[in-house]
Write a sequence for this structure.
């Protein structure tokens, strides 16, 4: 067991050989702290979906960087790296195949602009871009489609830190939101 700074205990990685079935050679890292994030959203539009609620708040309160007609971009509240954005359609849909042509187009345009803005403001060396669709595929908020835009640098500390369960983020979310919003091109 690993003990957190507050005394909470978490299981260590388990070797695959101890699982039922055919061993696959992988260890398992249990991250029970993520359940709070997973349980925040994912239901129907009336169920306080964080992505349906965000556009009703101020840009600063919701960490929104850009508002388009069909979709918007906001900072991830639990970023993998500084500048980790989410591109989200306003409409409450769960998967990419439910998006209409205008939503798909604007999600793509916002993603491209986000890459350019992040590259210009923080000199990112690369990006991880992706959508986890459905709880089984790892979507923390499965009920509302969102695309991750994660900036990467040759010198970053890894995508998912395992040692000490700590991620170094050099800027506060509010500072990053303001920097990206100010650099976003006007329409």
């Amino acid at each position: 067991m690993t003990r957190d700074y507050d005394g909470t205990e978490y299981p260590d990685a388990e070797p695959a050989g101890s699982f039922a079935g055919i061993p696959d050679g992988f260890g398992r890292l249990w991250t029970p702290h993520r359940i709070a994030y997973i349980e925040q959203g994912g239901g129907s539009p009336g169920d306080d979906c964080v992505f349906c609620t965000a556009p009703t708040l101020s840009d600063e309160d919701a960490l929104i960087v850009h508002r388009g007609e069909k979709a918007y971009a906001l900072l991830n509240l639990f970023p993998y790296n500084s500048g980790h954005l989410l591109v989200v359609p306003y409409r409450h849909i769960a998967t990419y195949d439910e998006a209409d042509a205008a939503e798909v187009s604007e999600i793509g345009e916002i993603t491209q602009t986000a890459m350019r803005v992040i590259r210009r403001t923080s000199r990112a060396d690369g990006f991880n871009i992706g959508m986890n669709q459905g709880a089984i595929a790892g979507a923390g908020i499965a009920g509302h489609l969102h695309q991750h835009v994660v900036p990467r640098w040759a010198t970053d500390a890894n995508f998912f830190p395992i040692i000490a369960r700590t991620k170094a983020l050099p800027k506060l979310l509010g500072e990053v939101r303001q920097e990206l919003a100010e650099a976003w091109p006007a329409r």
Strands lie at 2-3, 9-10, 14-15, 27-28, 64-67, 71-75, 85-89, 126-130, 147-152. The chain has two domains: 1-30, 35-183.
